[in-house]
Amino acid sequence: MLLSRALKMPLVVEFNGSAAWIAQNWGSGLRLRRLAELSEQATLRHADLIVTISKPLLSQLRERGLDPARMIYQSNGVDTSLFDLNRFSKSEIEAFRLHLGIPKDALDFGFIGTFERWHGTDV
Q: Which of 10, 16, 30, 76 would be a feasible disulfide site paired with 48, CB 3.0-4.6 Å?
């Protein structure tokens, strides 16, 4: 926050949930929880832009009294031009599946990440 002001640069924050809440409820806790909460709130309050990956997180930010005009929702995603199966021939796909030991007729999909309540999924 101070650095962005000193350099006259915008402060852009990615908000994935309250770090203070996560540490207290899912981690080992915080000795100075109130200080962490105040620091987190000050950072969010002074941010020029807050980016979040889910609509429930936008709601949390609004509940904190933050200006919705400074928030954007950008879901996680993938560049479909890079991960487009149509770039590969049927024989290339079959060879890759064989290399991985995936049967020809097996349904498969991939996922890297987590699903938590703040992502807006039913977990």
A: 10
